[in-house]
Each structure stands twice: as C-alpha cells, then as structure tokens.
Amino acid sequence: MPDRLAKLAILSALRSEPDFSALPLLSSCTANERRTLLHWLDQSGLALTFIHRLRLCGGTSLIPNDLRVELEQRLARNAVRLGDMLEEFHRLTDSFHEHGVFAATLKGFTLVPDFCEDLSLRHQTDFDFLVDAKSVAAAAEAFQSCGYSTACLSESAESCFTTPLHHIPSEEDDIYSPQRHRQADLHTSIWENTPWLKVNVPQDCLQHTEPTVLHSVHFYSLSLEDKFLMQVLHLLRHSFRSWIRLSWLLEIATCIHIHRYDDPLWRRVIQRASEDRLTKCIFAFVLGLADRLFDCRVPSILLSWSSRASSPSLRTWLDHFSLDWAISDWPGSLNNLFFAPEFIPDRKRRLLYLKSRLLPRKGQTSIGAVAPSHGDSSWSVNSARLRYVAGRSVAHLKSLLCLPWQHLRWWKALMLARTEGMEP
Known about the structure:
- The protein has a 6-stranded mixed β-sheet. A two-stranded parallel sheet has the order 4-8.
- It is of the alpha/beta class.
- It folds into 3 domains: 1-63, no CATH class; 82-222, 2-Layer Sandwich (Beta Polymerase, domain 2), CATH 3.30.460; 224-424, no CATH class.
- Helix content is 52%, strand content 7%.
- Mean pLDDT is 91; it is low at 363-374.
- The relative contact order is 0.09.
C-alpha cells in the first residue's frame, strides 16, 4: 500500500467527525511498510491519539492485529513515562516556589482538556516555563538546584537547561520510556524573534495567568486565549524549520472544535493577537492547514479576521502543497520555501532565511545541547552527533535534488490559479 494512502487513512480517522472507511486498506501493508508507518506515527505524535480514537469508536478491528498491539503497548509505556514526568514537573515547580520565582507553565501539561482529551495521549519531551526577564537569574538557580545546567543564559531569548547525559541518544531508543535525561526551556516571551521574522505578541501574558491544579501539582498556566495564540505561533516557528509534529496541528483543531461556538473566546484571541497583517497571515496559514488536514471548521469570526491576509499565493500553496508537506517524514520538506514571501516581504531578510534553509549551519543539525556526565563519554557524544548530522545531510540533499521539480509544480499551480482568477 502506498505510504501516502496509509497516512491519509489515519488523518481521516482523526477528524472531529472520524472517517474509518479507508482503514481496512492498512491490512494490505507489508510488515516493512507497517514498521515505516509506525515510525511516522511516532514522529508525528499521532500514535497515541490514533489508537485511543479507535478504542473510543470501536474501530480497533479495522487495523491489522500486530499494528493494534504495537500501538496499545505504546499507550501503556507512555502512561509510565507520564507519571515520571509529572514527578519531575512537581519537583521543578516546588523549586521555583522555594526560589521566589513566579513562572507560568507553557504547552505540555497545560493543554488538557482544551487541546487534548487526556495527558496520557501526549508524548511530551521537555518542560517550558515563562518568567519575567528580571526573574531569569533566580529561575536559573532553581533549575540548578534540581541538577540542570545551561550553556547560555539569556534574559531576552530562550534558555535551554539540561541534566547530565548518562545515555547517548540513538534511533533505537524507545521514545515512550521514562526519560534518561531532562530538558527544560526558559522563556521571557511567548515568541522569540528570528533574524527574518519579527512578530508582535502581548508582553503581559504573566498578568493573565490562571492557577491550575493537575495531579496535586499547583502551578500557573496561560489564559486560554494566550494558549491558543502560543500554539499557533509555536506551529509557525517549526513550519519555518521545514517540519511540524502533526499532533500540534491536531491539538489546535481539537481546541477549535471544542470551542467552536464560543465567539467571546475567539474575540479575545483576536484582541490578543493584534491587527498586524503578519499575525493574520500566520493564522490564515495555520488555520488553513488545520482545515485541510483535519477538516477543521474554523469559527466564522476567526476565519473572517484571518482571511483578510490570505493571499491567492498562500491559498495556492495550501491547496496544492500543504498536505504532502505536512505528512512528510522527518526532517521534512523544502516545499514550504515557496510561501516565504508571504511572511518575509523584505528581500534581504528573505535571502537570509533561504540561506539558512538551503545551507543549514552546524547548530541547526545537532542532537541538542547535552551535558556528558563523564569526560570519557565525549567521544560517544561526538560519534552520535556525526551520525545524526550525516542522516540529516542525506535527507537534506534528497530534498534539494527534488526542489527544481517542486518549483516547476509551484509555478504551474500559480499560473493555473491566476488563470482561474481571471475567469468570470
């Protein structure tokens, strides 16, 4: 069975009104094709939600038994991982309190129930916190007291804290097992500007936080409107790096579906997002993706506001390229380069962005900032990093070789859209 058809069958099953009609086709997949599909489900973050949806709707018999067993085992292992992460989260929030740091938890545990039905259906990799710039030093001390360290502490950008590395990451690692080393990111804004993309975002999010209790852990989370805004911005940031986890997009679609009749909420989202054309364009892009992949019915008030920045060029990309780009395997596709002018009208900044994508720096192709626990592990870390870079380089080269053909497709799609636009 073609890889694309298998992925589309799964996306249809995850819509707000699920369609299971194509799932029996998965039985025609070979054992190797099923392993490849499972790998994509893991990378996309959809594996746990998919098996939960099948259980909920009585559809588990529609997929091959070995695939069902693999997915159910992932769900069970992730429940253990979740318990471990909740304990660590409790430890970090207690440390913030002891060091007098007011912090808001971002993403992760705060997304239930508005974006995700249950925590056990999310595969979380790290922790994110928002603090005032004046509290960065105290927050760093709180992290350090828990065994975390950072190579670069910033009061205006993201600071990444990690625990010592006792295990060299590899592709064979089980991503659903308890974490062997931790990462926590410290933010002073819900958006960090890049050299080519500067977005106006509210700077008073900490003043609108809400007290939250989860599994006896007390913490603060963003208001729902700020959560939604941040999820949209988070997906856009990763889109510019060529790849997104589809679970992020599904969570946005889920929130829209749950609150589809809550016009006051969407008015607050618009108010927090500002009237900048760039912000509207970001929403038009993300909401367009959610609609095309998960049949997300965007509330009219949100659609009317964002569509003011939806150009024919952006709609053409969404209609002809978005699906294949979104379901591509990690590390993604270069096809999103075609919509860069929509977000980066300045030619110099756009060239800077294009250079960063076509000729990625070493820092963009690493296994992450990790701290070896012993000096003799440096060779193993460097070896793992080299293997990682080699794999990324091969995938990048393949995407580069396909780019001329994709550019021709893009040109033809634009010509067709302009021709149709001229028709009465």
